[in-house]
Amino acid sequence: MSTEQVIKNQQHSNMWRMSVAPMMDWTDKHCRYLHRQLSRHALLYTEMVTTGALLHGDVARHLRFEVEEHPVALQLGGSEPADLAHSARLGEQWGYDEINLNCGCPSERVQRGAFGACLMNEAALVADCVKAMVDTVSVPVTVKHRIGIDRNESYEFMRDFVGTVADAGCQVFIVHARNAWLKGLSPKENREIPPLRYEVVAQLKKEFPHLTIAINGGIKMDATVQQQLEVVDGVMIGREAYHNPWWLASWDALYYGDDSRQRTRESVEEQMVLYMEREARAHGTHWYAIARHMLGLRNGLPGARRWRQVWSDHRLKHLAPAEVMKLARTKPQQASELLSFA
Ligand SMILES: Cc1cc2nc3c(=O)[nH]c(=O)nc-3n(C[C@H](O)[C@H](O)[C@H](O)COP(=O)(O)O)c2cc1C
Questions:
Q1: Banded model confidence at residue 108, pLDDT cuts 50, 70, 90
Q2: How far apart are CA 216 and CA 238, in angstroms?
């Protein structure tokens, strides 16, 4: 590899240092907007969008996002090289910074479509898919996968998968450090029951030092992030980022050496209210569809429960978001007086 390529890879690998995982029904554009208020640098992933949805569905509905969300990666689900190339091109045209292929989702619906985690059994097909996308777009094409399928815990199986796909032009792998058991477990159980084996990901990085390797799965604390950043290039956080979004507010200073933006939970809430007003005006989005993602913002603080209850109270749906914020910040007794006028 040339020096130029090595430098390019090093700059690249910083892009994956911290990221928020793709999560269906959770990491929609509203959720990403919230996360971007908290961290300027973390890479944000979309929910998985299938090639079928982009070929036959409403492209704008699936791909529209705010310019403030950058850097943002589009995750695709599919297994047809031509369809993936078409979808990747759309993603690039809509401005996404990366195209990611899902080779880690174990749900039955996804298996019936023959994509997601079962693609790990088809390394040559994944290589074709990656090549078709790499030949079509100039943004990075990356793969998110598991460390194995079913009870097969062979390191060589994953190594050969990564080797084959890397040869087709993929330089970045995000590895969910547990197997996917394709039979008998729900997707939720598949995120909890197969054991985490971080050491396998470390071994992968050792064997492919020139590739960018990010680790994912069960990471909830800075201490673990710091340990992992000694070993691999990046850490992807899923559920903890969603349930405890305030964690992201410390990432810029801790992981990117950037402490230029001071935020408080209140200032983030105020930004979200402005966003709710803009979204309502421009797209008719109800604030309720946005507020559902920020319910964990005050976790751990006194009064968090009541704040969360106000922002998720469907009886307040007729109020403007600024009014809801006022109620959420009001002491319970005053709030009931305010509510009786609402
Ligand atoms: C609600 C939910 C939806 C998910 N949807 C996707 C998805 O669309 N694509 C994907 O690759 N992984 C998906 N995942 C898996 C996460 O990206 C991540 O790999 C997993 O949650 C493990 O990371 P964590 O322990 O930090 O949560 C989903 C996880 C959750 C909780």
A1: confident
A2: 8
Single-letter code of the amino acid located at 324: V
Q: Which atom of ligand 1 is nearest to the CA of 188?
A: 31
Q: List domains and CATH numbers for the chain.
A: 3-256 (3.20.20.70), 265-341 (1.20.120)
pLDDT in tens, 130-171: 999 999 999 999 999 999 999 999 999 999 999 999 999 999
Q: Catalytic amino acids?
A: 105
Kind plus residue range of the DSSP H or E element containing 46: strand 43-50
Tokens of 180: 């996917």
One-letter amino acid for residue 240 of the chain: E
192 pLDDT above the threshold of 80: yes
- Secondary element (H or E) of residue 311: helix 304-311
Query: pLDDT tens, 165-191?
Result: 999 999 999 999 999 998 888 889 999
Q: Say which residue, 13 or 237, is predicted with more confidence.
A: 237
Give ligand 1 pocket residues (Cβ under 6 A): 21-26, 47-48, 75, 102, 104-105, 144, 176, 191, 216-219, 237-240
For residues 314 and 311, what is the distance between their CA atoms, to the nearest angstrom? 8
Protein residue closest via CA to atom 4 of ligand 1: 23
C-alpha to C-alpha distance for 342 and 332, rounded to whole angstroms: 15
What's the mean pLDDT when you consider all of the chain? 93
Radius of gyration in angstroms for the set of CA atoms belonging to the chain, rounded to a whole number: 21
Six-digit token pair at 293?
Answer: 């993602």
